């Protein structure tokens, strides 16, 4: 028998894709191949991907492949090559997810043996709550139907009606739909299905509703524990027919609109419409797992604005067995943690504490002006969907509203808001802006924002259809009402007007005529309104880019709607997950297009903003800034981080970068360019007040390393706290860093540290450092950059020498504030 020993190189662990790829490699050989995870002592047949997944292998786990058989020598060579070179590629995240770089899972979490489901982050953050399916609990309302003597007859009647309906639907169907409906039909005709409901009613004396639901729960429970993907996925079919059966029996209970939450909840759904999201009580909503939503769907945009973290990449069916169980949604590490144990909860309270500190810090920074390091001012504004969001956005440091999606006012109701209602909402925003500019985008109805009361017929391609400015001539009354409300509200502040989805000059000429008519009307009625309402257009249809000069004669500003522009430029549906890897605005073509828009507009003295999601991606800020974008508008919670990022950028360096990026030949080349672009920063002292942590409630080694690395990220000393932590743990594995006397000196030389640092944690109570040198009450953590040469050895040996000195040690433990600790160390050690 031959073996290959290796550490799992996959940042996301051995999930479905790499397991499948490894299985393919193993299956090419006659030899028996066993995969062993030494950390967990789990074994699997290398030729079964399901078995490989079930080993629970995570990044850096120590693993072995054991090969025995007639071709073991060739197999070993080929597999070794595969593991060392190509294996890691099978873990890659599709390029559409580029902004969310795959991080290794922090060891401070993995060591606690959490039960993880890997996912894709759509909105970052952490949420703790009970897992609930969007539809699942809606069945509860049926349970109120009491048992009655007619129950058995009603059941037979409902089963027969459902079978009849499914048979009818089957006619004329083909492909997938036919297969699914046939499967449903055979399920309800299965003796087991009806038989079990009858048994529950007869033997357990349950009401019909109760029996139907219990039957579903029993079948789903069995299916969801099956090892077969196929069987597990049948859970949603059982749900589906159960719901149909219930709604046939009690049609009056059918539309269940309200989803009531009474405790912190993580919601799971295939997708939600914006109005479904808006109907949720965000006090209890702590996170969402949306199986099918796109990166820039409006639901997601609303969720980000409400600071609700969102994951995708998990199916509703796979989560069904966890309904009602406690979970933690971790949008930072892109995992859903099932039934967390106490230690895992602690990990997340530390993570939450770090997030709170970061947030407080950002809020403090938010009031600082938005300037680059070389003092070039940039406008940072907020996107809002309702007047209620405005104060929060300003508190985050918005210097204006760059996009008020007014269409949200028209949604989720049965008639359009009248002029007075709109006037009040618009005025409210202008008043809370106290003189800062507010861009009102006129209603962008259509696409994925359907308004039932307008009776616009369903379309094959709603995004290419009748939407936004295109519908205004037909609904001119509605449009004029909105213009009146904006002009009137404009008298109370600094209002601007923006028209969505414009693609030709005649559209804006028509709008201007309407605007003129409305002004005259208001004047003749003696109604107070603004005489100054700068007019702009959204640049979200590619045709506009070629006639910016003509538009400059007619409008005052432009704002690039990168969400739509991306889909129209590449012909990629923004909400279709199957093409989402292609939905990437950071390509040479997109950047060149932005350059062309900005150059043409600036030449004629007009400014250009960006208000799509791209505008709030801090990773791409240097590129967009370098291309000359004047205003960045984003959801409020993103503003502090973007402003902080802005302060480390230099305008000229960004220009140079953007020019280079426009010459790149692929998105990957641009990403590499960006990766190498680290703005120069003034150096920082190794040890400072900001790196000293005093009496935080940290009770384990994991928590200390997690907190200290997280703190370095908050202080801007690392961009990669998780990678840095991983480096520390690797060192820790060689031999413990406890040095006796209650002190530990974890240390690493790492590429992930931007400013070499010494962090200090003075703990409330000594903790176990996995060493026989006793517990530890003082942690001195050295994280030094790779450029430091042998400096780290010097610092380390100086520290060690000093620590041997009893008086010095006692003074360290006796220091009563971060200040005195800092003074003590600075006096004794030359860093
Ligand atoms: C855009 O398309 O980028 C945009 C900001 O508009 P919306 O997302 O509302 O379509
Ligand atoms: Mg748009």
Bound chemical compounds:
phosphoenolpyruvate, magnesium ion
Which overall shape is indicated by the principal axes computed on the Cα atoms? globular
Largest sheet: 8 strands, mixed
Strand content: 15-25%
Instruction: Determine the structural class based on helices, strands and strand pairing.
Output: alpha/beta
How many helices does DSSP assign? 30
Strand order of the largest sheet: 5-12-11-7-8-9-10-6
Please describe what this structure looks like.
The chain has 831 residues and is α/β, with parallel strands linked by helices. The protein has five domains: 2-90, 2-Layer Sandwich (Histidine-containing Protein, Chain: A); 107-136 and 258-342, Glucose Oxidase, domain 1 (3-Layer(bba) Sandwich); 139-253, Enzyme I, Chain A, domain 2; 373-677, TIM Barrel (Alpha-Beta Barrel), CATH 3.20.20; 689-828, Mannitol-specific EII, Chain A, CATH 3.40.930.10. An eight-stranded mixed sheet has the order 5-12-11-7-8-9-10-6. An eight-stranded parallel barrel has the order 13-14-15-16-17-18-19-20, surrounded by six helices. Strand 13 (379-384), helix 15 and strand 14 form a beta-alpha-beta unit. It is globular. The model is unreliable at 93-101 (pLDDT under 50). The structure holds phosphoenolpyruvate and magnesium ion. The site of phosphoenolpyruvate has 10 residues, from strand 14 and helix 20.
């Amino acid at each position: 028998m031959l073996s290959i020993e290796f550490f799992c190189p996959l940042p996301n662990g051995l999930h479905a894709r790499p397991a499948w790829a490894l299985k393919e490699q193993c299956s090419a050989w006659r030899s028996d191949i066993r995969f062993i995870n030494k950390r967990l002592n789990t074994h699997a047949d290398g030729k079964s991907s399901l078995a490989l997944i079930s080993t629970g292998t995570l990044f850096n786990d120590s693993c072995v492949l054991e090969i025995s058989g007639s071709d073991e020598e060739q197999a070993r060579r080929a597999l070794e090559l595969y593991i060392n070179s190509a294996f890691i590629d099978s873990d890659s995240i599709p390029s559409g997810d580029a902004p969310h770089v795959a991080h290794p899972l922090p060891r401070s979490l993995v060591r606690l043996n959490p039960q993880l489901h890997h996912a894709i982050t759509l909105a970052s953050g952490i949420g703790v709550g009970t897992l609930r399916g969007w539809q699942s609990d809606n069945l509860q309302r049926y349970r109120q139907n009491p048992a009655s003597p007619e129950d058995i007859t009603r059941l037979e009647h409902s089963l027969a009606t459902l079978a009849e309906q499914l048979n009818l639907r089957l006619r004329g169907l083909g492909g997938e739909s036919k297969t699914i409906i046939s499967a449903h039909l055979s399920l309800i005709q299965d003796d087991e299905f009806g038989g079990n409901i009858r048994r529950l009613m007869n033997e357990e004396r349950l009401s019909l509703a109760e029996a139907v639901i219990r039957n579903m729960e029993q079948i789903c429970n069995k299916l969801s524990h099956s090892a077969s993907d196929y069987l597990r996925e049948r859970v949603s079919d059982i749900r589906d027919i159960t719901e149909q059966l219930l709604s046939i029996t009690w049609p009056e209970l059918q539309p269940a609109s309200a989803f009531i939450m009474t405790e912190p909840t993580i919601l799971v759904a295939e997708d939600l419409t914006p109005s479904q999201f808006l109907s949720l009580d965000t006090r209890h909503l702590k996170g969402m797992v949306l199986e099918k939503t796109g990166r820039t769907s409006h639901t997601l945009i609303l969720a980000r604005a409400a600071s609700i973290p969102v994951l995708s990449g998990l199916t509703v069916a796979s989560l069904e067995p966890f309904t009602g169980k406690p979970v933690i949604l971790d949008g930072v590490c892109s995992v859903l943690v099932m039934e967390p144990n106490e230690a895992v909860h602690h990990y997340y309270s530390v993570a939450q504490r770090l997030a709170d500190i970061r947030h407080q810090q950002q809020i403090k920074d938010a009031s600082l002006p938005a300037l680059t390091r070389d003092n070039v001012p940039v406008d940072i504004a907020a996107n809002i969907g309702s007047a209620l969001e405005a104060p929060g956005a300003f508190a985050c440091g918005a210097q204006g509203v760059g996009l008020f999606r007014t269409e949200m006012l028209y949604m989720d109701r049965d008639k359009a808001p009248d002029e007075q209602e709109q006037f009040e909402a618009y005025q409210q925003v202008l008043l809370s802006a106290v003189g800062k500019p507010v861009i009102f985008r006129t209603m962008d109805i259509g696409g994925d924002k359907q308004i039932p009361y307008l009776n616009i017929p369903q379309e094959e391609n709603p995004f290419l259809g009748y939407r936004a400015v295109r519908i205004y001539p037909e609904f001119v009354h509605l449009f004029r009402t909105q213009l009146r409300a904006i002009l009137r509200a404009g008298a109370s502040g600094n209002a601007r007007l923006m028209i969505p989805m414009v693609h030709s000059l005649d559209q804006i000429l028509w709008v201007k005529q309407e605007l003129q008519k409305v002004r005259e009307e208001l004047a003749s009625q003696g109604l107070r309104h603004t005489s100054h309402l700068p007019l702009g257009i959204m640049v979200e249809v590619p045709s506009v880019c070629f006639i910016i000069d003509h538009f400059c004669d007619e409008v005052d500003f432009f704002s690039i709607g990168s969400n739509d522009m991306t889909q129209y430029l590449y012909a990629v549906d923004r909400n279709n997950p199957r093409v989402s890897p292609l939905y990437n605005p950071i390509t040479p073509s997109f950047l060149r297009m932005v350059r062309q828009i900005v150059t043409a507009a600036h030449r004629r003295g007009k400014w250009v903003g960006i208000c799509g999601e791209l505008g709030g991606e801090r990773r791409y800020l240097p590129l967009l800034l370098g291309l000359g974008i004047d205003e960045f508008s984003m959801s409020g919670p993103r503003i502090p981080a973007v402003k902080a990022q802005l302060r480390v950028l230099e305008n000229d360096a960004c220009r140079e970068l953007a020019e280079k990026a426009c010459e790149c030949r692929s998105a990957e080349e641009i990403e590499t360019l960006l990766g190498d672009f680290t703005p120069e920063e003034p150096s920082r002292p190794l040890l400072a007040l900001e790196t000293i942590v005093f009496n935080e409630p940290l009770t384990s080694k994991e928590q200390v390393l997690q907190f200290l690395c997280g703190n370095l990220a908050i202080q801007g000393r690392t961009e990669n706290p998780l990678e840095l932590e991983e480096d520390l743990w690797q060192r820790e594995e060689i031999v413990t860093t406890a040095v006796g006397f209650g002190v530990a000196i974890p240390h690493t030389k790492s590429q992930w540290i931007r400013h070499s640092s010494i962090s200090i944690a003075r703990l409330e109570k000594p903790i176990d450092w996995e060493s026989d040198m006793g517990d530890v009450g003082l942690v001195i953590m050295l994280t030094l950059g790779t450029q430091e040469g042998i400096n780290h050895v010097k610092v380390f040996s100086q520290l060690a020498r000093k620590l041997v000195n009893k008086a010095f040690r006692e003074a360290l433990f006796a220091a009563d504030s971060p200040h005195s600790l800092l003074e003590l160390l600075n006096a004794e050690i030359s860093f």
